[in-house]
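User: Working on a comparison across species. This one is Nucleotide-diphospho-sugar transferase domain-containing protein from Linum tenue. Can you predict its structure so I can line it up against the others?
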Amino acid sequence: MNHNYHSLKDNPTHQISILLSLFLFSLLAVSFLIFSDTPPLSNELTAASNNNDPLGAALAAAATADKTLIIAVVNKAYVEEGDWPTMLELFLDAFWLGEGTRELLDHLLLVAVDEISYDRCKFLHLHCYRLRLPPAGDNSSAAGDGEEKVFMSREFIGMMWRRTEFLGDVLARGYNFIFTDTDVLWLRNPFPRLTTTRTPDLQISTDRFDGNQWSRSNPINTGFYMVRSNDRTISLFRSWYSLKDNSTGLKEQDVLQAMIREGRSIRERLGVRVRFLDTLYFSGFCQGSRDIRAISTVHANCCRTIIAKVADLRVVVGLWKRFRSNATSVDDSAVLANMAHVACANSWK
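Assistant: Here's the predicted structure for Nucleotide-diphospho-sugar transferase domain-containing protein from Linum tenue:
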């Protein structure tokens, strides 16, 4: 062994050969890394993760650093129903017309329940997720045919319950969110009007505000609410959804309202603190805001069809544009509270 070692050490030709071989090996290794078509391992793992968990990827892409996002559910009717603008177009336009709302689109996740609405979402370069619905006739949910689910129809009730199940899954993944119907116009950034501390757990809009933000007598509306992810709210959504099969003819909102008013199901048993949102800031067609200077959102509630909602929301947009062009006008301050919402009123006839 010692003889061979000294032979190599004392032979310059052998040393040069070894060094040259090492150099060629290093050059080949670098060339392989540079010119290989194989993507880096981290990219492969990311792609596999996205394919195996598309919801996780969609949530992560839309969420803020503290895992908060905005979620809206759409189907074919919301992207095609009626003349221009469609409900989805009107919903998105409000973000552009509103105060401090444009940047919020970066954190909006559109959940599409059919291929047409999903394709439209992708075309608009938004954050999109395709939610699968059970086939027609399945008692657990509504058919995913994309047609309008008329208020309180069997299909409407089924889709609302499927939405509740889905949102419970989002909470279980550790995400906080504002859920918003697409018939809610975001005219101002609502986050400053929402409590961002760890309490309350749930902040929910009302059809008519009774003056007390902690009063369980407020009639809720699940078209707009903010919920924080924690053990209490995850348990709430599981308990809420578990009542689906024993609530025939009731929409998910009615069941949650009963849970809230009973008290034991929400505060005493689950420990959930609920705050009810003032219609001065989070208004709707049931009860309009008294001051357009204070308003954050307008919801086309107390309305039966998409076409009627779009017609009356267009009137709201026109009023908002007029107000923004002349912000000193006093005459416009209380107009929203006094609007007749003619199309929505006629939708019940």
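For your comparison, note: The first strand starts at residue 68 and ends at 74.

User: Helpful, thanks.
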